[in-house]
Amino acid sequence: MEQLFSYGTLQSKEIQMQVFNKLLSGTEDMLLGYKLKDFQIEEEFGMEDYFVAIPSENPSDAINGIAFTVTNEDLIKADQFESNAYKRIQITLQSGLSAWIYIES
């Protein structure tokens, strides 16, 4: 099993059912040394506002989110869901867990 750290859309139960066809279980955690940045993605019906994690020069910056336990198949589904504006990397959360996260590509 893998950990996937979500700070946004994938926390939604509706999105989880749409992407994974199930609800994910996870625990609250924090990613230190990163911050959120607003950006827009062109979608089917126009531009949509989102945010993305980016490394911060301030090590005390942090992003709150949820570390979800997922399978490798779930990661593939998440990759397909996230646009090419994001890339998936592995990070270490405040708890010490190693997790995947989507950041600015």
From TrEMBL:
Residues 4-103 form the Gamma-glutamylcyclotransferase AIG2-like domain. Pfam families: GGACT. InterPro entries: AIG2-like_dom, GGCT-like, GGCT-like_sf. One of its GO terms (molecular function) is transferase activity. SUPFAM superfamilies: Gamma-glutamyl cyclotransferase-like. Keywords: Transferase. This is Gamma-glutamylcyclotransferase.
